[in-house]
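subagent[fold] <- orchestrator: predict structure for attached chain, return tokens only, no commentary.
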Amino acid sequence: MGFIVNLLIFLPTRIASYFAWAGPLIMRLIVGYVFMLTGWSKLNNLPQMIQNFTEWGIPFPQILTPFVSSVECFGGAMLMLGLFTRIPAGHAGGGHGRRHQVREMGKYRFCGDTARF
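subagent[fold] -> orchestrator:
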């Protein structure tokens, strides 16, 4: 019985302890790549994105659209390289959480405004 417990529990635990760094690295590469691709596509289609930001009611779309797209693109690249990781993390947690919208009676509102419904 001790052999089976050692084989099924302790051995995988010991092997996994050597690769504890792999999970965060893989997630950082995947999330950074997704951010970089979405930011790059927004930068390449900037007039349409400015129009979308205007329709969504985001203030100062001519200024914020290139800024947000640049932070996504270059922040994703920095996240993949492991440089200044708090900047893209702040963008992901703060900016994207507010940008998703809720539809109410034909009008769009930011999720941050849902408390006023």
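orchestrator: received. Logging for downstream: Confidence is low (pLDDT under 50) at residues 99-106, 112-117. The chain has five helices and two strands.
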